Amino acid sequence: MRTKLRFEFKLSVFLIFFTLSLQSMQAQNSEITGTVTTTEGEPIPFVNVILKGTSTGTSADINGNYTISAPADGTLVFSYIGYATREIAINGQTEINVNLAEDLAALDEVVVVGYGTQQKKDLTSAVSVVDSEQISKRQTTTVAESLQGLASGVNVRGGGQPGQEARIEIRGLKNLQGSNPLYVIDGLVTTANRDFNPNDIESIQILKDAAAAAIYGSRAANGVIIITTKKGKQGPLKVTVSSKMSVTEIPRYDLASQEEFVRLNNMAYDNGGVPRQELDLSVNTDWQEEVFRTGLIQDQNVSFSGGGENSSYFISGNYFGNKGTVISTDFDRISFRVNSSGEKGIFSIGENLALSNSKTDEIGGSDGFRGNPFFDVVRLFPTIPVYDEDNPGGYGYGKSGVANVFAANPVALANLIDQETENFRIRGNVWAEIDPFPWLNYRFNFGYETSFDEYLYLRREGNWTLNQPYEPSFTNQNRAQSETILFENTLTFKKEFGKHNLSLLVGTTYQKDKYEQINGLKRNLLINPNTGEYFDVLDLGDQAQVGGFRNESLLLSYLGRLEYNFDDRYLLNAVLRRDGSSRFSDANKWSNFPSVSLGWRLSNESFFNSETISDLKLRASYGELGSGNIGNYEYQGFINTFGAIVLGDGQTLYPSATQVRLANSELRWETLKQTNIGFDMGLLDNKLQLTGDYFIAKTEDVLFGFPILLSTGNDGGNPISNAATVENRGFELSASYREQVNDDFSYNATVNFTRLRNELVSLGNGLNESIQGNTITRSGEPVGMWYVLQTDGLFQSQEEINNYTNSEGDVIQPNALPGDIRFKDVNDDGQITNADKTVVSSPWPDFEMGFNASAQYKNFDFSMNWIGSFGAEVYNGFRSVVDRFDDDSNYRSGIQPWTPENPNTDFPRIVRGTTLNSRGDSDRWLEDGSFVRLKYVGIGYNIPETALKRIGFDKARISLSAQNIITITDYQGLDPEFSNPNIFQRGVDFGSYPNVQNYSLGVEIGF
């Protein structure tokens, strides 16, 4: 039909043109040729080319080429759906090549909303659409990192560790587990983790409110991210090859060199009345230089795509390699994808298949903070050598009386321990559709995902820390497989009745998840006499230990959605989903998750008349979502069957069993109830677009395991219960503006703003508060507030100490000396105790924002992305180590501690052996965590087509970019953008892996 219409259109144009050419008054015409492309140089097929003021016109061919006859003083109008219309004066030219910019405002953009699509203009809920080009520009390992700053209400915290998974929150705190949102890739419920190739992404939709996400019911409480991967398009084979190389650098601490360290260490020992250490002054080790290095990332991609009238295909391959900025850290990924589809009459079928293999090499041990290189490099003295033949294994790590430090030598860890994880994943789905009538569609979707995982831990003989007991060599290995099977059946009815537009979706889903693992350990491994390397196969050792387990879960769901549109003015969307999960007992397996949303497009009302406002829509919604994010068997008791008991006169040994973990058979779904009110507005012919939302979300029956005493008989983890209630409310605003200034220059800019506040309404289980570390969680307050002692300057004299009394005249800190910290006696009992702790500030930011801008001038383009977070107080774990002086570590460079000769300072006197000035539970270590960061900046150049034609390319592009190169902050740690997955200690920075600076060169060609 499309071909026939084009033929008839061309025939009509030809007849009109022929008639006009016979008129003697008609001006002399000339033939004009050219090519219509996107701003990135890709041809746009079938563009309409019209001579302005007439009906004379033509359309471009499949490669964007056109030919038209027109007068020299005429004007050509180029138009195509989804692109901004352009008018170009001919001015005697015979060749006019045109770039059309994508016009998102004019385009009735189709948005994937779960089991279907909607036009963006008809959305009645909160959905953010992220441009896939923004994703592909950045050098990231996972999708989550690429989303940072691109959508309001979406908070992302990652890090620079190779293969590290970023933490993402949509609209703040929803429960007490900090779970990631649900990912749906091409209809498959899965994860977009480090083995997923972000270069394959075609579009991303973020379902933020309950009404948008309700179609996914029990798994959508933390939001939904829908990813659609690239598909082939009609036309000949298109090959695209891209290569990006990046150099990475890690931020470093400003630590004392040997001379400054020795002076401060001796001062601390002298002030504490402790004999000085016999520091080895012949050694001057820069531990950061030994442990940190310049990293290298390479991202190589190739894709093939094309299609005919009834079929299409897309094939891609990717290699991603990340040599980390810390020794013995690497990540490698190889991935392959095939997407294809075809149709015949009323029947269509397609598949999306992705294979990947990823391998991660990590550094570290299991000794708490020891084994974290970002702690070890500051705890180790510059007077400790990297290598010491006197120590087992030959590495330096301190000596009693010479270097009293218990940090781990990272170089030793890198050489004595191998820690590798490898994952091979198969992920994909096959779908089929039947359209028996234009208004009826049946879709079947089968999804399958499996992952084969291998973990290797090899420990060689040798030590890495002081007073470490001997441990023989051993290897601990496990093999695991996960499997997900998904069946979905949906029936969709769509019909227009005059001004009424109705859509109805009903369906069922069935999902089965299985995970099984076997593991083994052997000690005293054999060594290859030729190479000196340890054999890491499990049959070459002794003291064997084996184990294994298997988990299974099922989810069965029924779903329905009603969409109604009257006259493009009044919009209704209603969803009901019913989920049943095997993770709950029979009495509590099932729950219903409804939602309803309304929209009113005022701009289409007869009474609405505004030259400034092009489009205005008001939205309101309410929905309920669930979460069953618990273990598979939490409602059942765990029994240990390996026990034994001695009974009878003969003292006979009998087998026994005991329950080791308490269980709660009454577990039920936690439920998020969310109300959202918002608006969408277009101004100045939709060049300026505004979106705003206000929401209130309350999660009831929150599933969480609060600590209980072991005396209760519980020895298998804290039992889960439906206890707490969490409320989260916030405001989001985004504004975008785009302008086509002239034929050569265009630009656009977007800013988004998010303000959130969470509140723990109640803890449940009879609890009023929960204290973890230096934070407290109380009813009526945000989660994890700072609960510490308050400092009040330094004592400058003995007289000040004596005069610091409570209301009864008791001296509060009688053991203090001049130069010590003065703490506030909050309860006025005349002493400093834990009872003086109080809530001092919040780890949650007051607001966050993102700013994105880009511009195109001829063949050049420029883009940048800024992110900002303001108002959060954070705990600087680095300073709590290097500034305490009661323990042994290196120190910050340039500090000026209090002395009688230097009283004008805020740094207390330094003393070895007492915690008087080094308490970790004071506000001394709290800092303003606000920051503004240039997350990405890049410039690109598209080589002109005239030059490319000589070598047979359709597209060639060169780009330079950088990430994380500018950060404006007062925070004194490595990175204010750190990540801590513990909800209750969100603002604690204890050795978090910082984001790295990234400098990239990219090349892309297409033919």
Judging from the principal axes of the Cα atoms, what is the shape? globular
Overall radius of gyration: 33 Å
Distance between the termini: 29 Å
Proportion of residues in helical segments: under 10%
Estimated structural class = mainly beta
Q: Name the average pLDDT.
A: 89
Please indicate the percent range of residues in DSSP E strands (runs of 2 or more): over 45%
Count of individual beta strands: 50
Number of helices: 11
Task: Enumerate the spans where pLDDT stays under 50 for 5 or more consecutive residues.
Answer: 1-27
3D structure, described in words:
The chain has eleven helices and 50 strands. By secondary structure, it is mostly beta strands. The strands form ten sheets. The chain has a 22-stranded antiparallel β-barrel. A five-stranded mixed β-sheet has the order 10-15-16-13-14. A four-stranded antiparallel β-sheet has the order 3-2-5-6. β13 and β14 (188-190) form a beta hairpin. The radius of gyration is 33 Å and the shape is globular. The two termini are 29 Å apart.
SSE blueprint:
Blueprint: H1 2-21, E1 29-38, E2 48-51, E3 57-59, E4 65-71, E5 75-80, E6 83-89, E7 98-100, E8 110-112, E9 117-119, E10 127-130, H2 132-137, H3 143-146, E11 154-157, E12 167-170, E13 182-185, E14 188-190, E15 201-207, H4 210-213, E16 224-229, E17 235-249, H5 258-271, H6 287-291, E18 295-307, E19 311-323, E20 330-344, E21 347-361, H7 373-379, H8 410-416, E22 417-437, E23 440-459, E24 474-497, E25 500-523, E26 542-566, E27 570-581, E28 590-601, E29 613-627, E30 638-647, E31 652-661, E32 670-683, E33 688-704, E34 721-740, E35 745-762, E36 769-772, E37 775-778, E38 785-788, E39 791-794, H9 798-803, E40 821-823, E41 838-841, E42 847-857, E43 860-870, E44 873-876, H10 877-882, E45 926-928, E46 931-942, H11 945-948, E47 955-963, E48 966-969, E49 988-989, E50 997-1006
Parallel strand pairs: 1-7, 13-16, 44-49
Antiparallel strand pairs: 1-4, 2-3, 2-5, 5-6, 8-9, 10-15, 11-12, 13-14, 15-16, 17-18, 17-50, 18-19, 19-20, 20-21, 21-22, 22-23, 23-24, 24-25, 25-26, 26-27, 27-28, 28-29, 29-32, 30-31, 32-33, 33-34, 34-35, 35-42, 36-37, 37-38, 38-41, 39-40, 42-43, 43-46, 44-45, 46-47, 46-48, 47-50
